[in-house]
Structure formats: C-alpha cells, structure tokens
Specification:
The complex is a heterodimer of chains A (370) and B (394). Chain A has eight helices and 18 strands. Chain A has 370 residues and is α/β, with parallel strands linked by helices. In chain A, the strands form three sheets. A six-stranded antiparallel β-sheet of chain A has the order 4-3-6-1-2-5. In chain A, a hairpin with a 2-residue loop joins strand 3 (81-87) and strand 4. Chain A starts with 15 loop residues before the first helix and ends with a strand. In chain B, 56% of the residues lie in helices and 7% in strands. Chain B has 15 helices and five strands. Chain B has helices at 32-52, 55-78, 85-111, 136-149, 180-189, 191-198, 202-206, 212-240, 245-271, 289-298, 307-312, 319-324, 333-347, 356-369, 374-377; strands at 9-16, 28-30, 302-304, 353-355, 382-390. In chain B, helix 1 runs antiparallel to helix 13, helix 2 (55-78) packs antiparallel against helix 3 (85-111) and helix 8 (212-240) crosses helix 9. The chains are: A alpha/beta (370), B mainly alpha (394). At the A-B interface, helix 1, helix 2 and strand 4 of A face helix 1, helix 2, helix 4 and helix 8 of B.
C-alpha cells in the first residue's frame, strides 16, 4: 500500500480548471512530481508532513510535532496515521497514533515514538528525527475512537507506547470540557519509562473529575499501583468501571490481562481496544501456517509452493507473466506475514510490502491482497 | 519435447545465423555442468549487487529525474522564443534530451522494477507512466514479459522484427520482405507509435489467432494514453505559446521524432548486430536458470561509449548485462560489465560489443540483406556455441 494513493482530491473549486490545465501539462507524471523538486511541502495531491519540533521525553521515546500539508483532513482521537521515512534509500512506513488532542489550534499533530530494540523505523526516528524533515503521511484511519455523545464515564488503560491513542482521547475530552468521571490508568516498567508524565500530572492537578493512575510493573515504590493488571487494579483505579466505557491500548500481555478480567466480569461489550500487531518473528524450518488472500476471502494451508501457485490452487487467477521473477506482472501487496524469495533466499517480514508472487513462498502465516 | 538417443547427454547447437566477427574457428562447447556453474556465478554476481543497493542508487535516480524535469521545463520555455532560432533549437534539443531520459534511463528502467525496492510510489513499476504514447501496462506485457522471457526465440520473441520486419534468417522469406528497409525506415520515424501497437499483435489478429474482444481493451488504453500525450504536445503547449502555436507544434513534433530515431537505434543495436544468436522453441524448452542466462548472453549485444552515452541510452548500451539482470538498477551495469565479460572469456563465450556506428551499421546491413531470401544472400547458418543439455526423456 502506498501512502500517496490514499490522498484524495482537495477541494479547490476556484482554481480547479487551472489545476487541471497544469495536470494536463505535466502528463504523464503527477504535478507533485515537479512541485516536490522545488519544495517537498508544496503539493496538490500528496499528503506529507514536516517535523516542526523534536522532544525526547524518556531515554527511548521521541515526541515529534508535525505540520501536515493542506490535504490533511484531521483525525479522531484514537485513530492512527502511517508515517513514511527513507532509510538507506528505502521508504519504510509505520503506523503511529497521534498523542495530541484532535482539536489542536495549529492543525499540527504530535506523535510519540518508542524506539523498540528491533524497530528499524522507531530507532531511526529516535536517532535522526530533526526539525525540517519531511515525511510521507496517510490520512487518519482506524475504528478505535470514542463515540458521540461521549459516555458518562471513561476509563482509559494503556501500557508502554500504547499510551499515545489514549492520551489523545484524554486531551480531546479535556478540550471538550468533559465533566464525567475519567480515569487514565497507565502501565510502565518504572517511573522513568512514562512519557508525558509532567503533562499528565498537570492535567490531574487541574481537573477534579480526572484521575491519573500510574502502575509500575518493575518498581515497588512510588506510583499508585504495582504489578500487572488485575481486578483489584480495576476496582482501585475506577470503582465505577461497570458503568463506564473502557478504551485500552498496550502490549499483548496487558491486552490479554484486561480482556480476561472483563470477560470474567461479563463486561466485554464495554471494552474497546486497539491492537498493534507486534513485528512478526521470522519463522524458519518446516512449511506451515495459513495463506489468506484478503481481497477474495480465501484461506488455505501453506503448501510450500510459490504464492502464485497457491493462489491458483485456491481457484484465483492473479495476473502473471514470466513465472521466474523477471517481469513483475504478478507483484501484489503482502499485508502481513513472512515470505521467502526463492531467487535470492531473502526473507521478508515487513507488512504492506509489494512482493512478486511467482518467486515468493510463505514462511508461516501470510496474508496477500488478491 | 525431443528425444535424442545419446547415452546421457544430448548435444544441441545454439545456432548462429550469421558470421560473427569474433567467431572462433572451432565452436565452443559448454558442458551441462559448466552451464550450471556459470549460472551460479551469475546468481552470485546478482546477489552481490542487490546487497549494495541503497542511498547511492536512490540519489542517482533522483539526480536523473531532476535533470529530466529541468530539461523539460527549459525546452517548453524556450518555445516562446521562435524568433531567436538558436534559442528555439536549444529548446527542441532540451525537449529531445528530456524525452530520451524519461523513456530510457527513467521509464524503461523503473518499469522493469529496478527501483521497486525503494518502496517509493512514484518509482514503482506497477504505477509508473512514461512520456510516450504507449500505455505502461501494455508495454510491460510485450516487453518485460514476452521479450525478456523468450528473448531471441524465433516465433515467440515478437521483438524480432516487431511483426513488421525480417530480422532473422529463421523467419521465412516472402516477397513482402523486399520492402524490409523501407518498413524499417518508417518504423524508426514512428517508433513510439510502433511500440504502442506492439502488444496488439496485429499479425495474429489478421491471421485470426487473436480475437477482437482480446484486442478491444488494449485499444481503449491506447486511446486514453495517446490522447493525453497528443493533447499535451500538439495542442496545450502550442496554445500556451499563443502566436507561436505553429512553431511550437513543429518543435514538439521534431523532439518526438528525434527521440524516436534515437530510441529505435539503441534498441535495434541490442539484439540485431552481427554475431547475435537466435534460438528455436525446441532448443529452449525446459531451460534451467543457467541455460536461460546463456541464451540472454548469446542473444544480446552491447554498444561501447562514454558514461554520458550510456545514460542517454538508458544503459541499454549494456544490453547483455540488462538481459541477465533486467531488474537491477541500470546504472549498475557499467560496473558489472567487466565481470560479465570476464565470465564470457572464462567459458569461451562471445561478448558481443562494438561502437555505436559499427553496431547500427551492422543492423542496417542485416535489414537490407534479409530483404532477400537466404538463397540469394548466400549465407549459411554456422554453429557458434554448443550447449550440452541434460538428456530429456522422450
């Protein structure tokens, strides 16, 4: 998937005819292919963003403030965007949730990126993000947001870098003058791992109806709660939880813990969550897993053949040409999973990547957009 | 499938249809094992290059893009000065260079998937369009798939003669071919239109092998793409120069024409100079990767020249390297060329390379010669390289 394809035509009624004249002059290339050579932030179609501020709040997180180009249509607190940066000549895109209020006056967005030890993009941004860097951006997407009218009570639970979408929810509700009960329960290893802590403390001090609860899993002193999530944590942080809506985002362990407790309490309907798929480990060894073709809804066991052959066995007719990796006719988007190129022997576990079906075999579970 | 009664290996000549300037008196024989080993060495060469791809290649293609866009804007702007002939001529020249860069070093190479690894939407082979009337998707079928998979297989590679010319002695002569040089001349002038029509396979439509409903969607694509190109070059830009409408049309026609002349010449030098071999479907059935590599090497020819010459030919002057590694960024071919040539020497294979005038002269010589039946031109097929293949079961 490409970011630029997602941008829609901006509404420019008065200049429309002039714009279409310029586009006809630029054919077959997009007008932005000329404009970007002068200034990457002057675009008529493509959505991009310029980093305007870089703040490192903990030793492994960096908060980026970005100014999107005019195509940006805003976001709802809890949604995510895809950000693309160039590393060693290759554009890599990753999903991040803005952590700011959706009502920010200057129209900028703020992302907090945690540098994961294995994270190519997060490490790169942590080390190299600087003011003036232009990144590619997608419009906001995702169904994780608080419905209107806002619920009477809101419990926000996050862990680690999952703080960003729920922090955005908190800040958005504050900007709306939210008057219901609101608890923000955040899990971190230790106190020094909490990003945005000073802002959160300030928010708690300024609002009577808002409670910020810090839970530390690796620290027994300080903070409000210790250890992993459980029913006691829930009761202590938000005794009114049964009448509230709960929004959750965090690492898989926390997600499972909260889901289990809510299932025991019969409150599944009140729990809303956002799961960021962790990077897939490269599976080696025997052929296994499932191959799913997402556009056609077909799923089959991985037979070890190339993805083109497996698609054909599943009754699909993807376009193909040489069947030996030279003509690129069968290139399709791998949405998730790990594939191995039988020509080069290289494995690839990056999501949303275009691969050649005829020379790729799945390694474990793989989803292909055909 | 063909059965040969030899005990374990069959000898199959990869026939050479004309005299090679570098032909050895005794034909080279490559054993099955040698071919496999050669294939492994080329695979390694490819892997070494893939491992190097990165910022340097990205910067290179962006540099070319900037040059091309700059030349295009300059060319369009100078069309406002038709009353200063040198300026107007410079404008035509800038537009010629822009279109050549767009078609060859950028378009041809990007659409081969050479820059797909950058994961940059504008440099992706699936979405790129080029500044010529042929729609990208149709060209990728006729070129990337048909030509690059079945390179120089008579009857399958439709680049042999472009269904118009007789470019190989294996093509049966008939009186129509007396006009070979005339057809070639017009194909050269109208090359972009010839490329556009290529995927229609008109000869198959005429013969009834191809149905109207297969062709209809292709015509729609051509109409849309060519319409936009014609509108831009022959209406919008001329109209924008107001009183200079006519001179701008002339300039744009001229630029497209010169670009056609150049692209035709470079492309014809890739597979038709003397010494290039062609193959039959039988010889090439069930090829191994190594055998495929050997066919690409024997079926392609290089042009020697300066670095600028290579850029302006889209590095198709390194046709041999391009056919071995069609999806490696083309600006890497010059650094691969000495290694490929050394491999050819090691295995006793010809490495067909010559200056531009030498190669294009030899192409035109062939165009004239093949206008006549083989019996009149007196040449007889000679064996260039013998490739031993593994025994194929009957």
């Amino acid at each position: 998937m490409t970011l630029h394809q997602k941008s829609r035509r901006p509404r420019l009624p008065s200049t429309f005819s002039l714009l279409s004249l310029f586009e006809a002059m630029a054919t077959p290339h997009a007008l932005d292919r000329y404009l970007e050579l002068v200034d990457p932030m002057t675009t008529v179609r493509d959505l991009r963003a310029e980093i305007t501020a870089v703040h490192r709040s903990t030793r492994d997180t960096v908060t980026l403030t970005m100014r999107p180009t005019q195509q940006w249509r805003g976001f709802e607190a809890g949604q995510f965007v895809q950000v693309g940066v160039v590393i060693d000549g290759v554009r890599h895109t990753r999903c991040y949730s803005p952590s700011c209020s959706q009502y920010r006056d200057d129209g900028r967005i703020e992302l907090t990126v945690k540098a994961h030890p294995e994270g190519l993009v997060s490490q790169h941004l942590h080390r190299n993000a600087r003011e003036g860097l232009v990144v590619s951006l997608s419009q906001a997407d995702g169904t994780f947001h608080i419905p209107r009218p806002r619920p009477a009570g809101v419990l926000l639970i996050s862990g680690g870098s999952g703080i960003t979408p729920v922090l955005s929810m908190l800040r958005t509700l504050l900007d709306e003058g939210y008057s219901g009960d609101l608890t923000f329960l955040h899990y971190a290893y230790t106190e020094s791992d909490v990003s945005h802590r000073t802002q959160l403390d300030a928010i708690a001090a300024a609002h009577d109806n808002i409670r910020i609860v810090f839970a530390y899993t690796d620290q027994e002193q300080g903070g409000d709660l210790h250890g992993f999530f459980g029913a006691e944590h829930l009761r202590s942080a938000a005794p009114w939880y049964a009448d509230a809506e709960t929004y959750l985002c965090g690492p898989p362990g926390l997600m499972r813990g909260v889901e289990n407790v809510y299932a025991d309490l019969g409150l599944e309907d009140r729990l809303h969550l956002e799961e960021f798929a962790p990077p897939l480990a490269v599976v080696t060894g025997d052929v296994g897993g499932e191959v799913s073709f997402t556009e056609s809804g077909k799923v089959g066991d991985n037979s070890g053949l190339t993805l083109l052959e497996q698609a054909e066995e599943a009754g699909l007719t993807p376009a193909y040409g040489c069947r030996m990796g030279i003509c690129f006719t069968c290139t399709s988007v791998k949405t998730s999973g790990c594939t191995k190129n039988i020509k080069t022997g290289e494995t690839d576990s990056e999501p949303d990547k275009k691969i050649q079906l005829c020379v790729s075999v799945p390694v474990g579970d793989v989803a292909i957009e055909i | 499938m063909f059965a040969i009664p030899s005990p374990s290996l069959s000898l199959l000549p990869f026939m050479s249809t004309s005299d090679s300037p570098r032909e050895q008196p005794v034909p080279t024989t490559l054993s099955y094992e040698q071919v496999q080993e050669l294939g492994r060495e080329l695979d390694e060469m490819r892997a070494r290059t893939v491992a190097k791809l990165g910022s340097e290649d990205r910067e290179y293609i962006y540099k070319i893009i900037k040059a091309q866009r700059g030349l295009e804007i300059t060319g369009r702007a100078l069309m406002y000065l038709p009353f200063l002939p040198p300026a107007w001529l410079a404008g035509v020249g800038a537009l010629v260079l822009s279109k050549i860069l767009d078609n060859m070093e950028i378009g041809h190479n990007v659409m081969h998937g050479q820059y797909d690894w950058m994961r940059e939407p504008e440099f992706n082979s699936q979405v790129f369009e080029w500044d010529t009337v042929c729609p990208a998707d149709q060209w990728k079928h006729s070129h990337n798939y048909m030509h690059h998979t079945f390179t120089n297989i008579v009857g399958k590679d439709r680049d042999i003669g472009y269904s118009l010319l007789r470019m190989d002695e294996g093509q049966k002569w008939n009186p129509y071919y007396l006009g070979n040089p005339v057809y070639a001349f017009f194909l050269m002038l109208l090359f972009e239109w010839g490329v556009m029509l290529h995927d229609l396979e008109i000869e198959n439509v005429v013969k009834g092998k191809r149905k109207w409903h297969d062709v209809k969607p292709l015509l729609g694509g051509m109409w849309r793409k060519a319409g936009k190109q014609v509108l831009k070059d022959y209406l919008i830009f001329p109209a924008l120069t107001g009183p200079f409408f006519a001179s701008t049309v002339v300039g744009n026609v001229g630029a497209n024409l010169i670009r056609n002349l150049w692209t035709y010449s470079i492309i014809f030098c890739g597979h038709f100079p003397t010494g290039v071999q062609t193959f039959t479907e039988d010889e090439t059935s069930d090829e191994s990767q190594g055998e495929w590599y050997v066919r690409q090497m024997l079926g392609s020819a290089n042009i020697e020249g300066s670095p600028l010459f290579h850029i302006m030919s889209g590095n198709l002057s390194h046709q041999i390297e391009h056919h071995l590694f069609p999806d490696l960024p083309a600006h890497r071919y010059p650094e691969l060329a000495p290694e490929v040539e050394a491999l050819c020497e090691k295995y006793g294979l010809p490495y067909n390379s010559g200056g531009f005038f030498n190669q294009i002269g030899s192409v035109w010589g062939k165009i004239f010669k093949l206008a006549l039946p083989n019996s009149l031109t007196g040449s007889k097929p000679t064996v260039g390289v013998i490739v031993e293949r593994k025994k194929v079961a009957a």
